[in-house]
Amino acid sequence: MAIKFEFTGKRFVVTGASSGIGRKITLDLAENGAEVLAIGRREERLDDLRSKYPQNIIAAAIDVNDFINLKIELEKFGADRTIDGSIHAAGINKFTPLRAFNWSDAENIIKTSLYAGIELVRILSSKKLSSPTGSHVIIASVAGIKGEIGFTAYSAAKSAVIGAVRSIALELAIKDIRVNTITPGWLQTEMTDAIEARYPGRLETIKLLHPLGIGSVEDISNLLMFLLSEESKWITGSNIVIDGGYSIK
């Protein structure tokens, strides 16, 4: 990273840490001295992640929708020292067209993006676990501010995340705890690689919708590092769009 942040002695929780944005921010935080609780469902990927910085990364293979075990892991992580913030990057994106709407899929999508994000911040903002100036970020999506055909549940979940965080930020401001959302556009990830493999040429069409092209997990992590740092101490309840111009085209 061209800009370095000092997180030595800081502690953060990252969900969805086994891939994509979650994996990248976990590595960047650890590289800059933070201790990170990396939460994900794929144990083998978490083991690989932990091997990169074994002194800084603690792995917990749990489902974020399992609130009982989520609370256990968070309290274990914060047992001897308070926690400085979190990134909720866990999410599910599944095609849910109106003509074949699946309520079970929709419920899982909303629970993972919205309910689990709220529960994460709720637990970590407790007096017992939170540092005096905590910072939390929940990952939204351009689908939450701009319609995407066939992704009704995902769009609804991400739009709800943005609205929920605005209210949560007001509640927690009295504790000097900050909560924000970021709204990424399309990123070059395993998901876009899979789309290109299944639908050759589709990725090129997606790129053309972004004036600056599609982004990378590095672009997102750079912004997240700033929001977790003291340099952003006057930012809360905000939704920061980072999408290469997709939503304004």
SSE topology:
Elements: E1 11-15, H1 20-31, E2 35-40, H2 43-52, E3 57-61, H3 67-77, E4 83-88, H4 103-124, E5 130-139, H5 152-172, E6 178-184, H6 190-198, H7 202-208, H8 217-228, E7 239-242
Query: What gross morphology would you assign?
Result: globular
The count of helical stretches stands at: 8
Mean pLDDT over the full residue set: 94
Mind describing the biggest β-sheet?
7 strands, parallel
- Strand proportion: 15-25%
Low-confidence stretches: none
TL;DR?
The chain has eight helices and seven strands, in the order E-H-E-H-E-H-E-H-E-H-E-H-H-H-E.
Can you give keywords for this protein?
alpha/beta, 7-stranded parallel β-sheet, 8 helices, globular
Plain-language structure description:
The protein is globular. The chain has a seven-stranded parallel β-sheet with strand order 3-2-1-4-5-6-7, sandwiched between helices. 42% of the residues lie in helices and 17% in strands. With 249 residues, it is of the alpha/beta class. The protein has helices at 20-31, 43-52, 67-77, 103-124, 152-172, 190-198, 202-208, 217-228, and strands spanning 11-15, 35-40, 57-61, 83-88, 130-139, 178-184, 239-242. Helix 4 (103-124) packs parallel to helix 5. It contains eight helices and seven strands, in the order E-H-E-H-E-H-E-H-E-H-E-H-H-H-E.
